[in-house]
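::Amino acid chain::
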Amino acid sequence: MKEHWDERYASEDYIYGTEPNRWFAGHLRMLKAGRILLPAEGEGRNAVYAAATGWEVHAFDQSTEGQRKALKLAADKGVTIRYTTDTLEEMTGVDGLFDAIALIFVHIHEDQRPTVHHRLASMIRPGGMLILEAFSRKQLGNTSGGPRSEAMLYTAAMLEEDFAGMEITFSEEACIHLDEGPLHLGNAEVVRLLAVKKE
């Protein structure tokens, strides 16, 4: 998988654009800035936005090409982010607790998904928030992005079960129009979740 993403990110173009995901940015604006974790952050668009709005950012991805481009984008925008290379299964470079974690189009195989999600939930401070947007299983057949395997796609019910230890404040499956670079373009079937760590 690392080789796949290194190859995909090798171009100097930002394949998902340099602007933040709208769902993420809209909800981040409502929170008091603190410490945020962005797993599988790719080329860094969301990490750089968070840093520019006052957050202390820790991001990671398995792709060294993604890391390179994220750090370049941060330098171009005049912000600092901590960005390590790591996998969702190991997360060896992640430490401490976070005021927010954002999972934006982070797709985990169903064999590992509940375990990874439970571990991420354990890294959120009491009162902290999870912000998630990903492709739903209805996305299969669309050309607007996402994995081509049902085992890598989600339903709202799955995510509600994975994060059942948190207070789920919003959950939906919806059809939206994506315009996030050439690989996220067109009508898309997504699942969205907001959850707060219980005090």
User: Anything to note?
Assistant: Residues 64-77 form the longest helix (14 residues). Strands lie at 35-38, 56-61, 82-85, 98-104, 124-135, 167-179, 185-196. Residues 2-196 form a domain with the Rossmann fold fold (CATH 3.40.50.150).
